[in-house]
Amino acid sequence: MKVGAEYIGLGKCKFTVWAPTLKEVAVQIVSPEQRLIPMEKKSEEGYWEVTATDIKHGTLYYYQLEGITDKPDPASRHQPQGVHGPSEVIDRSTFIWTDSEWKGVLLEEMIIYELHVGTFTIEGTFEAIIPRLEELRDLGINAIEVMPVSQFPGERNWGYDGVYPYAVQNSYGGPEGFKKLVNACHEHGISVILDVVYNHLGPEGNYLSKFAPYFTDKYHPIWGDALNFDDQYSDGVRNYFHENAIYWFQEYHIDALRLDAIQAIFEVSARPFLEELTDVTAEISQQLGRKLYLIAESDLNDVRVVRPKELGGVGLDAQWCDDFHHSLHALLTGENDRYYQDFGRCEHLEKSFRESFVYSGQYAPHRKRKHGNSSKEEPGHQFVVFSQTHDQIGNRILGDRLSKIVSFEGLKLAAGTVLISPYIPFFFMGEEYGEEAPFLYFVSHSDAGLIEAIRKDKQEEFKAFEGRGEFQDPQSYDTFYNCKLNWEKQQEGKHKILREWYQKLIQLRRTIPALKKLDKKNLEVSSNEDEKILFLRRWSDDSQIFCILNFNDSNVTFTIALPQGNWKKILDSADKKWMGAGSQLPEKIIPGQELTVKPHTFALYEL
């Protein structure tokens, strides 16, 4: 069942809202002229409908509930005056798409780049991103992941406080601006992944409970009231979010959805919401004639997330692998607080290279329980790996990136580790040139009590970082503004070299068969814990690569067993070309040869 205001044309608009427990609902037109249009309850499930005339693109309206209170449409397409203002009727035919031949980028070929619209450019809009697409394509990026764009309170937010899942943020440029961005991305050969939040809604402007039982008190998540996916009236909640996915795929030509924190979608049912969502997505993929993807963020280390339904899984296409990040970060930084206490050894990264999940049923000290199951048999293209994300940076008291924590050599090593893996690589905006601006948590709420509660909550969270920096007020405009990217840096010094390093790594990954094929079976990895060094060999048919990853602060001398052949060096982060100190590794190596590698070096050989 479609919900919201569906503009039919010729001045007609069909309004549909789910309100099963209400006795009276009407459309309150507020602009261009005020009038009240009664609605009729059309089904036992509780959907109210009316097809109104003399409605134009841009008409503003509320739903009047029980003849008393006016509230915005839960499925509003646009909130031009913010979360408390009227909803707007959108005529989707006013935008002309030029991507009719677009078929999307295959999941296994994606090089993903995450960005936050508000801080990616000084302007902080969708249209301001478009001039940067050529640079991203030149870098080798073929998929951007846009952090949530659903309407949130005020003008600045990470996006996870959204309260209108269908409405595109007004301060970013609204529906028209977002469509222009997606269309431009497709013209540049870039897929668009949209981050969506189906586990909670934000607190300010959240009026859904006025319409229907969207929430349940059966569960008590950390981010607010639990959405009702399994209690009475839950069919309407499921439909609301299933239709939301269809909406993004159909009306905005989105190529994939990144599902935020699916471990916070609580339900006990024979047919889980996410399983139904995979069916919905498969159906709309068939209708549109191109493969659409669902990628999960999950804290569960549960391989059933990506296993096919016929094998007892949920059937999502891929999931983030936090274990890879934690293993890499702990080795690079030596940090052992919070969840990093579960990592820090070469064997952790070695296992993640080989299997994906590090914790596949073992005891995790930070969690104080056993965690995860085995991902050994699942193919590489079902896992997304990274050295930085908005969460891993933004959930630090200073919002400090790796560029502020590790050396230049460490940054090159981090990039190489991600791109040499048999998984889908993912980067956070600006990391390709070593951006030094922080990415802090920021909001712009209007409720003084809520603002103070958020301040106290974040101060409590950041006690783990005591002594590492001063708390930044999330409500302050300066906190937000200081997170803006400094694009001019990529043209100078080490920043320029680092960007060229990323570009070279991506180019090698896309052209060398042994790297391009995401195959965990044709892979050997070993490590020396005392020396903090790893060795990785991957192959595909006649193509082979051998990689050295040195996380040691000192030179390491070693002898490695390799298959016979003419192994040629094709990349070495210690070379002066990459502003290294100068490599001691030879241009060619033979099996059994003694080698010495500089500290924090990434070196790649090809047979």
Question: Which class do the helix and strand fractions yield?
Answer: alpha/beta
Helix content: 10-25%
Backbone shape:
elongated
Q: Which quaternary structure do these chains form?
A: single chain
Number of strands: 31
Average pLDDT, all residues: 97
Counted by DSSP, the helix tally is 14
- Biggest pleated-sheet summary: 8 strands, parallel, barrel
- Straight-line N-to-C gap: 57 Å
Characterize the structure shown.
The chain is an alpha/beta fold and 607 residues long. It has 14 helices and 31 strands. The strands form eight sheets. It has an eight-stranded parallel β-barrel. A six-stranded antiparallel β-sheet has the order 24-25-26-31-28-29. Strands 3, 4, 7, 8 and 9 form a five-stranded antiparallel β-sheet that branches. Helix 5 packs parallel to helix 6 and helix 10 runs parallel beside helix 13. The longest helix has 19 residues.
